[in-house]
């Protein structure tokens, strides 16, 4: 098992904030919009340096999505910022008609995704957003794994022409990917090569998959771990290549098991290469109030759950 | 024909009578399009024919050699996308695409979808609309973009009145005055009708003018079925831009205007005329520019 270390923990939303600030410096067409959550989205640096390119919309997410769509018409690259719940479910039809169907170059940037938002509870902990967004034709869906990768992803989507959903979160987590990484949309990132079981993970679950890989190594199991930061378009080739080698797969996501990364992988396997799969995901449930760690344990998203899923799926190999 | 608007002399490109002739042809187009596929929305298409004609043939600074960005041009956004027939007719008649393409309306592989969209690349359309309540927000975004760029072009939008029951409109109505989006002229098709009946009975809009004024818009009122008045109102609205407030043209129209048995009722909101009804209707509308 390749050794991963980290010197600090940071939140992925701060990676977005840093990426947005850098994007503002690099491209004068970048504009940012926020629905009364500037501090939560870490947009302060952008607003300080580019006040003329920031739009405070107030608590009116539907209007924000429409304004963003309109801003693209004369070549602006709008980044919208609010919580994942209010970035997707609350404004689904606005995104569907004014952004996705209209083919507008809007970057929907969504913080506080998943259970790790913690104490605010289920009203704010969306676990359905990946599914909602990946179903929209032409929508790119990205869920990076740490601060550096979120920053890199924010810059990468600036250069991509078309609608993007960028999902990130609130808790501080290990920063283990390189600061100067090149982020390729749709290109899986090999974390550890192995031969016994494939573990694909997205977002906050990638570090947990690494911790699971270390435990599996102690048990004599050689896990191949892949960071799927782009859920759509999915890197079919990387996943198939790995599963053809290991013969089984575990998918890990801080999302409902319905509609997420796991189902995208299942679709791929059933059409291209049959292999057993286990899902580490929320079991069709809403969240609740507690600390992020308590919730990840209760909803079975811990490294130990990944280890158990890997052991189970290996027994099902043909 | 010159007239005075806010102390400026406006020299018109067409006479009112010429514009009325174009609107008559536009109404014929709308009815024939809807009749051909026995689906679509003739009522408010007829009601807004004068507005669209005045806008595209007289007021709008636009280039039918369409570019999405429309740099330096005025832009128009239709929020109540179901009145697509009138927009398609005016776009075709002002040179965005061949008039013959109107015959493809709502048919397989057509660029003239039931509700307008950018998806098939129809020139003149900059956003999809149909799901109601979204167009004003989009127009605000385009207007802000022009402001950021120092582009002097104006942004026009049209919404239905029943459509104002959608909450997103009120988010947009609150936003535009606060952010001084004064390069925006929104018109409301105030025909008092919606699918299920008069707006007064479905969900009354009450005191619309006062509501818009309370939100901080510069509100003007007009008769959208009087060509001289709607043309003058749009020119006047234009003269009010750049003064710190968005402009709202509360435009009274009659659904089905121009055809005696269609006028003033919600019954023709989304129903197509029969062969016999079409013949009667066309008999009341002069063919002035040649049917497609």
UniProtKB/TrEMBL annotation, chain A:
Coiled-coil ranges from the UniProt annotation: none
Domain of life: Bacteria
Domain (Transketolase-like pyrimidine-binding): residue spans on this chain: 10-175
Pfam family membership, one: Transket_pyr
Protein name, UniProt field: Transketolase family protein
